[in-house]
User: Fold this.
Amino acid sequence: MKVLSPEKVFAQYRDEVTPYEPILKRKYTITHSDMTAELFVFIAENYAEDQTTKIRDEVRIVWEKWQEGLALVGSVIVDDFDIKGISPIRNKIFYNEMPTALQALRQADRFLFMNRPELDETPVLIHFISNNPEFDKIYDFGQIGIYK
Assistant:
């Protein structure tokens, strides 16, 4: 896993979300700039629709109750009728870059994790959404704490 430069990560809290609460209403929209390699993490009660583009290369993640605890459950759109691009290429890029996106989430919301260190044990499950069954899968990216 490549090391993420913290100075390349920008967080923005929206709605009623603060660095410490709430947890279950917390949704993350992770976007990036191809020009600057900066990552933008919007932390809010709703996804940051104003930050998405027609390319649909954002990562969306939400806290959910799962088994006896919590999980970070997310999605990316590999393809659909409105998305241009080659599914195998988009799938590979999303899969290879997901650790960077998760590092950005962990860095952007570091105050929550410092205040609640047990949250580092939260599993991360990401649905790669595709019309093609070969790419429509849910991946387990381990616990969020590995992305410190």
Q: What stands out?
A: The first strand starts at residue 9 and ends at 13. The helical segments are 87-108, 110-115.
